[in-house]
Predict the 3D structure of the following.
Amino acid sequence: MKKLLNIVIITIVIFVMPACSESWLEETPPHLITNETLYTNLSGFESGLNGLYSLVREEREGNSSDGSNNLRNDMAMVGTDNCVPNAALAIGRLVLNWQSQNVSTDTNVKSDFLWLYKIINTANTIINQAETRTDVDWNGTGTEEENKNRVIAEAKALRAWAYRHLTFRWGDVPLSLEESLGSNIKTDWLRTPVAEIRNQMKSDWLFAEKHLSMEPPVRGKVSKGAVQHYLAELYLTIGKPDSALLYADKVINTPEYKLIIERYGVKSSQPGVVFMDMFYDGNSNREEGNTEALWVWQWEYNVVGGGGSIMRRWHSGSYLHTLISINKVNPLQFTVDRGGRGLGRCAPTKWAIELYEPKDDRGSNFAIRKYYILQNAVENAPAPADKLPPGYNYGDTIKLSWAKDLSGTSNSGRNDWPFVRKFDSVIPTNLQESWQYNDQVYLRLAETYLLKAEAQFKLGNSTDAANTINIIRRRANASEISASNVSIDFILDERSRELIGEEHRRYTLLRTGKWLERVQAYNHRGGQTATARDTLFPIPQVVIDANLTEKMPQNPGF
């Protein structure tokens, strides 16, 4: 059984005095969990951190607060140059028509804004309790001071992570560093300039870097390498490529962090490519052989606190209906190899699919599904055999189609469109399950190399940047490049080739000043409706309305 972060729901219960009982008079009743009773020892702080991580994982789990299955990270991925909606759902509806749908009353804009502040408040509570209380028993593995600093470091790292989302999505937002208490309720929040918030993010991550280890004590926790990676990105964002290079090199030069350059693990004896091995269930974690991993998120089926991701639900194609137009036969069965049931709610653009050289493993059918092979019952087991349309035989190829681009602003999508396979995973006993329970690489070393190349390019070292990029390209069997090939657009192209479906693509394009240009050039499904104002989302109207004693300004154009 995997070591998991248990989900701990912490609630402050208001008790009504029961008749004929004096148990409510106990100063610390055993059934009452409050900040005062929980944060008294290291175990209590670990429980608080587990609750914080459970909130963070909602990025890939769905919007649990309103009971929907909307994917929170869509705001960071869909509506870019390499990813468009394939169904008008959640943020997909918004990015199909930016001008009419990117509004302050949008449910998803509101929900994600409040989710991120829930993370921040939870982190603030842990930090405040750890820093101010003098009655905590910090005994555990390591010294008391080390344990205390590690707890604070994790909370600060995740607080900065939340502000990273907020600043890229909304720009200036309120900066909150205090635990929310009944005594300090605010109705006069001010929007803090992005530069000031990013200074706080830097401070939080620098503290975390000092007190976190390369190998977290429990799977799923943030590592020193992940924090250094985020610092490298932050320094690029604020125009300090020299510092970005320093922190990228800190990660890259850590001996235990290494790119995967050979087949390994659960499918190493099967046909495949080196690039994809780290995405298979059983291969994602460092102790399973994934030396490239900086941060791996944990899920597990049918375990209390195990949770589940819906990345496949959104990114994998709805292939059950691929051949519905051929004699009304739907031949393809859900199988383990095909990753189970996908709904295809978002899709790569035609530009992104065609960005690869023919021999580039990252564009192969192992990485981006472009065709299927009709299989018999033995090959499909435990699923039944594929159904054969007239004129077809087992072993025949069923090709997906991307000759005509996804375009327009209609609600309809395509079932025969290629899709990213990084999230192919399914429980064999339930092949139609929408959720997936495999551990997933959230942040990895290859992206750090690409941050390094960007820093080198901005420092005028195109030769060094080309050499860094070639390290990534060699792993994929792509041709090597020279200094003359390097530009910010080439780096963005390479990031798409390597990181499609993983990186927060919107943030990368905003950070480099390329979002609007590239959306209008390569995104033909809603991209043409975007304008400069849509580089930010509007502050949710409920947030503005709740700020009763101070007017909170809206973003320009809304």
Notes: The mean pLDDT is 91. DSSP finds 20 helices and eight strands in the chain.
